[in-house]
Amino acid sequence: MGAIGTLSPYARPKGEAIVSEETLSNLLHEDRSFPPDPAFAAQANGTADLYEQADADRDGFWAQQARTRLTWSKDFGQVLDWSEAPVAKWFVGGELNAAYNCVDRHVEAGNGDRVALHFVGEPQDDTRSITYAELLADVQKAANALKDLGVQTGDRVAVYLPMIPEAVVALLACARIGAPHSVVFGGFSSDALRSRISDADAKVVITADGGYRRGKPSALKPAVDEAVTGDSPVEHVLVVRRTGQDVAWTDKDIWWHDALEAADPECAPVPVDSEHPLFLLYTSGTTGKPKGILHTTGGYLLQAAYTNSVVHDVHPETDVYWCTADVGWVTGHSYIVYGPLANGATQVLYEGTPDTPHKGRWWEIIEQFKVSIFYTAPTAIRTCMKWGKEIPEKFDLSSIRVLGSVGEPINPEAWIWYHDVIGAGKAPIVDTWWQTETGAIMISALPGVTSLRPGSAQIAVPGISVDVVDDAGNSVPNGSGGYLIVDKPWPAMLRGVWGDLQRFKDTYWARFPGIYFAGDGAKKDEDGNIWVLGRVDDVMNVSGHRLSTTEIESALVSHPKVAEAAVVGATDDTTGQAVCAFVILRGDAVQEADEPGEGGDLVTELRNHVAKEIGPIAKPRQIMVVAELPKTRSGKIMRRLLRDVAENREVGDVTTLADSSVMDLIKSGLSGKD
Ligand code: WT7
Predict the structure, then answer these.
(1) Which residues bind Mg(2+) (predicted)?
(2) Which residues sit in the known binding site for Mg(2+)?
(3) Which residue's alpha carbon is at the smallest distance from atom 27 of ligand 1?
(4) Directed axis angle between helix 165-176 and helix 132-148, to 10°?
(5) pLDDT of residue 538
(6) In this predicted model, what pLDDT tens digit does every residue of 268-306 receive, in sequence order?
(7) Cβ–ligand 1 contact at 535 (below 6 Å)
(8) How confident is the model at residue 239, as a pLDDT?
(9) Which residues of the chain have pLDDT under 50?
(10) Which of 176, 399, 503, 546 could staple 143 via S-S, CB 3.0–4.6 A?
(11) Whose CA is nearest to atom 21 of ligand 1?
C-alpha cells in the first residue's frame, strides 16, 4: 500500500509512526458513503451555498454571520485585523455581552418560557427544567454576588463544579460582568487546581460541596480547601450546596444560595469589546506545564453559535439537544454553554455517568426528553457497543435526528453501530474535529449537505480553511498524508496562552511560519476528505481527554521512589489510547517491588500518586517497573519501542538505541506477567 509509505516522512518527530499500518489500511478501505436525505436537506440550517459565499468573500461572510447571529451593543468596523499576527482581532471595535446574547435576548424576544436546561441529576427523579426567564434571574443574581465579592470586569474567576445548572449560571454570570472564567474539570486534583488558580491569578473560586458519582455523593470542596491554603490569590470561595454532605468551613467560604439571596436581582450586562477575554481553559501540551488557552468574546461566541446551528442543525423551537461533555472541557464550554444558549436551544444537562443506575440511562433520558440531537465521544459509543445493542433497543430513540461525535477519530465500526443502533440507520452523523485552541468546530460534514464517509471528519466547515501539508509546509495531493494545519485565521481561534506570548508563538506558529499547526497528523483521501490520524506530538488522547506524556512523567518522578519514568499512549479498544508507564525505581525502592515488572503495592501507590498530582483521569492503566529505558545516543527516550511493548507487539527497529540490548532486558524483566 503506497499510501502508507507516504506517511512515514510525516511521522512523529522522534521517528514514531503516527498510525499503525493496520488502522491505515482499514481506513483506506472504508468507502461507504451516505448521501443526504432530501427531506432532511429541505429543513437543514446548513446549505451548500455557504461554501460559495465564504470562498468568494471570507471576511464578508463572517461579518454577515456576526451581524445576523449575534446582538451587538456597538457595531464593529473592520472584520479581521491580522496586523499583529498571530494574535488576531475579529470584529474590531464591536461591543457585546455574551450572557446577554445567551439569555436576555431570548427573553426579550418573548421566549422566556422556553426551557433552556432540562437538568437531570444522577439520583433518579432529581430532575428540573429551567426556562430562559429563570436562567436570566439566576445569572443576574450570581453576577451581583460576584460583584459583591469584589470581582470586577477583567478579574479571573475559577470554577470547579460538577455538572449542575449552577455551572452554566456561574459561567454566564462571569460573562455578564466581563470577568473571564477559568473552569477546572472536577476530576482534576487539588494540586492541578492550585497551579491553574495561581497561573490565572483568580480571585474567587466557585465550587460545590460535592456531586453525585455512581450513586454516591463525591466530595469536591476538600480539594478546593487544599488548593487555596497558604499563598493563594483566592479571596473568596462560593460554595453551591449540591449533596448536603458535611464540609469544613473557612473564612473564605460563602454559600452560593446565601450570596444569591442577598444579591440584587437586577444586573445590567456589561458591554465588552469584541476582543475582551471571555475565558481561559487550561489544556495539556508537550511540556509539563498546562497552557491557559485564551478565548475572547465576539469571534468565539459567533463560531460556537454558527457551528451549533449548521453542524448540529439545532432548530431552537423544536429540537431537544444533548451534549454529554462536561463543562470542564472545551466541548462543554462551546456546545453546552455558549453555542446552544446563544441559539436559544433547549438542552439536557446530565450530571452522571452512562451506567448509573443502569447501562441504559442515556437512552432512557433520550426517550424521556425526546432528545433529537445527541453529541458524544467515540469512547462512549464503543463502551455502549461493548454492552450490547439490546440495551438501547429497549428504549424509544425515534426522536433522534442528528448524531455527533467529537474528541478522537471514530472508527468506521463504531460509526456504523452509532448510525444503525442509535440513529435507526437514518440520522446523519457529524464527526467534528476541533480543539481547545480552535474554540469551535473546524472540520465536519454539514448534515443535509455532505455525503457522509464513516471514519472521516471530512471537510472544513464554510468559512474555515484547513489543509494537510508535508514537512516543508506544502499542500499534499489527495491520497497522501501529512500534518493538519489551519492556514487562515478563524473567529474562534485562541488569542494566546495566558501570560506567555512567546509560548503561544512557539507552540502553534513556529513549525510552519504564519500557519497554525494543530498537532495532529491527517490524510486526504481521493475525494479530498480529511481523515484525522491522531497526535504527532507527546500528547495522548484518552477517552477524548487530552493528557501530556511529559506531565505524567513529571508526576511519576516527583514520587520519592521513582528515579526515571517514560509514559506512552497505547492503543485501547475502548478509550482510544491508555496511559502506560515504564518506571525505573530508586535503589532502595527496588527491593520493595515484589518482582521486576510487577511491583504490587508499589504500583498502586504510584497510580494513586499520579491521581493525586494530576487527577484520576491521568492514572496509568499499567505501570511497568523496568531496569532500563530505551534511549538514543543523545539521551532521548524512544517511546515508539515502549509503545510496542505496551501494545504487545514485536519490538521495532532498535538500531538507533545507544544500547541495543536494553529492549531485551526490558522484555525479559516483564515476561511472566500478563
Ligand atoms: C484533540 C483536541 C474537540 C473538543 C474535545 C477535545 C482530537 C478532536 C476529533 C475528531 C479525530 C479528534 C485531536 C485534537 N480530536 N476531535 N473528530 N477526530 N480527532 O479537545 O482536548 O483540545 O483535544 O482531540 O487529536 O488535536 P482537546
Answers:
(1) 557, 559, 562
(2) 557, 559, 562
(3) 435
(4) 60
(5) 83
(6) 999 999 999 999 999 987 777 899 999 999 999 999 999
(7) yes
(8) 98
(9) 1-21, 598, 672-674
(10) 176
(11) 546
